[in-house]
Amino acid sequence: MQGNLKSNTYMLRDEKSLLTEKLKNYIPEEYKVTLMPHFCVDNFIRCDESYDSFIEKFKKTATQGGGNTVMRQMLHIGGKATNCASALDSLGLNPCLIAKTDILGYKLLEYFLEGKNVDISHVSRDGELAFTTAIELEGVNIMFSFPGVTSQFGPEYLTEDDEELIRESDMVCISDWGLNNCGTKLARYVFSLVKKEGKGKTFFDPGDPSPKKEREEVEVKGIKNMLKQGLVDILSVNENELIRYGGIDFLRKVTRVDMHTEKYVKTFYNDKETEEIPAFNVEPKRLTGAGDAWNSGDILGEAMGLSDELRLLLANSVAAYYISDLEGKHPTRQDLIKL
Ligand SMILES: Nc1ncnc2c1ncn2[C@@H]1O[C@H](COP(=O)(O)OP(=O)(O)OP(=O)(O)O)[C@@H](O)[C@H]1O
Ligand SMILES: [Mg+2]
Question: Could you tell me the distance, in angstroms and rounded to a whole number, from the CA of residue 200 to the centre of ligand 2?
């Protein structure tokens, strides 16, 4: 695939060849990335029909007293931390996942990650499986989610071994704060541990704060306090999240902001900022998981010590490959070199 990937501007051509050279030459395989806390099994119900026709069928079945509807269904690996770990593995790093699930969930995780070098020895099996069913209709997805333990993943779930892993990691990433009722406590605890006793950088992808509902204001205040204390090195947000977490004038003073949108991406910190680096011109087959793929490229760029511009270009290329691949495969380094 991907023969149709093309950068949007002439200016990026030189940077693309520079990035290709760097990807050919060196990957810091020993760079340890630890991600938490979400693993989930996604069940996709693929209905190639409109919402109206689906509802019509649904009603008809209900009024005749119930019955069966034949539809193609597929289980997928899910959860932001898990997806990003899987993408990092494809790129050549050996990430570690800290999460909680149940026995069935663990077996499925092993199956999904078979042949990959994602360390799942920090995934415990004494929780509940997080499970999402998504009905994919033409132009709209309806999801039914059971968050399992993910909605309550606080610092008390971390074991001594997990904390040791956090201390010795080069990068510690937390995502899905929006879905986690204990998200602020978890982020504060983990990032403080890195800053006080660890050696790595901290990467935060809080996601959409909307699930916090009436608690959004107070919860966002907690995040802003954490940012003011310098606990977050890198904040990954889309354009809407950027506003919801305090706006660029505030955020750039307290962290490095890696902002991504469907059209362009940009990094800000203090008085520095990059140009807008355009997203690749591809035809998306899916958008779910674009942010996780993008983060994996951003993290690899950080691990490789790339310039801001090359790092953003790498992140865009990883996301573009993933969203336009027929099977939703995350790219390897070779795939990116061929682009
Ligand atoms: N339509 C698109 N065309 C090309 N690239 C895209 C498109 N949509 C997303 N991307 C790539 O994926 C990146 C991440 O997408 P986006 O900013 O929408 O993530 P997000 O809102 O955080 O999504 P998520 O819900 O997955 O967290 C973009 O910056 C871009 O590089
Ligand atoms: Mg996102």
Answer: 22
Nearest CA to ligand 1 atom 23: 291
Nearest CA to ligand 1 atom 24: 291
Q: What is the pLDDT of residue 92?
A: 96
Query: Under 8 Å CB-to-CB from 44, ≥6 apart: which residues?
Result: 73, 74, 75, 76, 134, 136
Q: Is the pTM value of this prediction over 0.90?
A: yes
Neighbours of ion ligand 2 (CB under 5 A): 291
Give 91-127 pLDDT, tens digit per residue.
999 999 999 999 999 999 999 999 999 999 999 999 9
Amino acid at 254: V
Taking only the tens place, the pLDDT of each residue in 208-235 is: 999 999 999 999 999 999 999 999 999 9
Domains of the chain: 12-39+80-130+149-338 (3.40.1190.20)
Measure the CA–CA gap between 78 and 232, rounded to whole angstroms: 25
State in Å: Cα 293 to ligand 1 middle: 9
